[in-house]
Design brief:
Blueprint: E1 2-3, E2 26-27, E3 33-34, E4 71-75, H1 84-97, E5 102-107, H2 112-116, H3 128-132, H4 139-142, E6 144-145, E7 151-154, H5 160-167, H6 176-181, E8 190-195, H7 201-209, E9 212-218, H8 227-240, E10 246-253, H9 260-272, H10 287-294, H11 298-301, H12 306-322
Parallel strand pairs: 1-6, 4-8, 4-9, 5-7, 5-8, 9-10
Antiparallel strand pairs: 2-3, 6-7
Helix pairs in contact: 1-12
The chain binds adenosine-5'-triphosphate and magnesium ion.
Magnesium ion binds next to helix 1.
């Protein structure tokens, strides 16, 4: 494993600013997660949340004593600009804060995931592209550490756009990413794959490698447009390529509770998918575009912000849904 020079940050690899908001889990100076008061992690529990349903308690998950095998989640929506990359980075960083070992896979030739983590994807000679095409490249040597402890990145760059074409003639072309990831699955608890906005062969590879798919949806007009096609694609992959694939959930992003429009859109999404929409909703805030410029997750850039709290809650909701760890005492 190599560390990218451009990803190195302050002491301990972590930076925190300002006061920690009461009621949120926080990290002590030596990097432990502190939980604080009684109802800390569960503000608003029992009251109607933004989805209109009562907000359940999502406990801080227990610390792990060993790691792996990884649970793989594809972050997928063929609609562009809905928060796939932002959610991959920040959910990954939140899971890492909770002690999970997380691998983020940049599966978009734009390389936005790498850039959002302060890593220039053009500096790498070997990327996901080379691994997919099955040369001599070793995935262990291709993975880079990020400035967040426990959060690693498998980078991509524009080379990946050629892979989609080259893969077409390969035997087992839909399984290339699953094969690529297999050697490192035991070293991680969660793998998040940031898909490109398309339902092409790369996205089918991501769905074939995944245990679950998370669908970020922007709370805007036409949010639901294309979701039926996406769900059909997921069904087809489940039937033909990957029987274990399930829908982890639909994540409402860029939600502005002050506007009637956003509230109406969210209500329509919940009406259509009453069981699939996460209780956690990610608010619209300028802090997210700022984090891209800063090249770090919101959990370190603005750890006390509403946005950071949102992704921490999402991490706890996911873990509460998919595991049954006892809460940290
Ligand atoms: N909750 C939010 N509030 C405000 N801006 C946001 C939020 N989430 C994401 N953004 C911004 O919206 C833009 C699109 O987000 P992002 O890149 O995560 O979407 P995407 O689905 O990965 O896009 P693409 O389909 O191009 O890969 C970015 O500029 C990002 O900073
Ligand atoms: Mg993206």
């Amino acid at each position: 494993m190599v560390r990218s020079d451009s990803a190195v940050s302050g002491p301990g690899g972590r930076r925190y600013y300002g006061e920690v908001t009461v009621g949120e889990p926080r990290l002590s100076e030596d990097g432990r997660l502190e939980v604080g008061g009684e109802d800390n992690a569960d503000e608003g529990v029992g009251k109607p949340g933004p989805t209109g349903r009562p907000m359940p308690a999502f406990p801080v998950p227990a610390a792990l004593t060993s790691h792996g095998p990884a649970w793989v989640v594809a972050m997928c929506n063929q609609k562009g600009g809905v928060g796939k990359t932002t959610s991959t980075i920040n959910l990954g960083a939140a899971l890492a804060e909770y002690g999970r070992r997380v691998l983020l896979v940049d599966f978009d030739p734009q390389g936005a995931l790498s850039v959002g983590l302060g890593i220039n994807p053009m500096q790498f000679d070997v990327t996901v592209h080379d691994l997919l095409l099955g040369g001599d490249a070793d995935i262990q040597d291709t993975i880079v550490e990020t400035q967040v402890e426990g959060l690693d990145l498998l980078p991509s760059n524009i080379d990946l756009s050629a892979a989609e074409v080259l893969l077409v003639s390969e035997v087992g072309r839909e399984h290339s990413l699953a094969r690529t990831l297999a050697p490192v699955m035991d070293g991680y608890d969660v793998v998040l794959i940031d898909c490109q906005p398309s339902l092409g062969l790369l996205t089918v590879n991501a769905l074939t490698a995944a245990d679950a798919v998370m669908v970020p949806l922007e709370c805007e007009y036409f949010a639901l447009r294309g979701v039926a096609l996406l769900l059909q694609t997921i069904d087809k992959v489940r039937e033909r390529l990957n029987s274990r694939l399930e829908l982890a959930g639909i994540l409402a992003t860029m939600y502005d509770a002050r506007t009637l429009h956003a509230r109406e859109v969210l209500a329509r999404v919940v009406e259509r998918f009453p069981d699939e929409v996460f209780h956690t909703v990610i608010n619209r805030t300028v802090r997210f575009p700022e984090t891209t410029v800063a090249g770090e997750p919101i959990t370190t850039y603005a750890p006390t912000s509403v946005g950071a709290a949102g992704y921490r809650r999402l991490a706890r909701e996911l873990m509460a849904r998919y595991a049954t760890p006892p809460a940290v005492g």
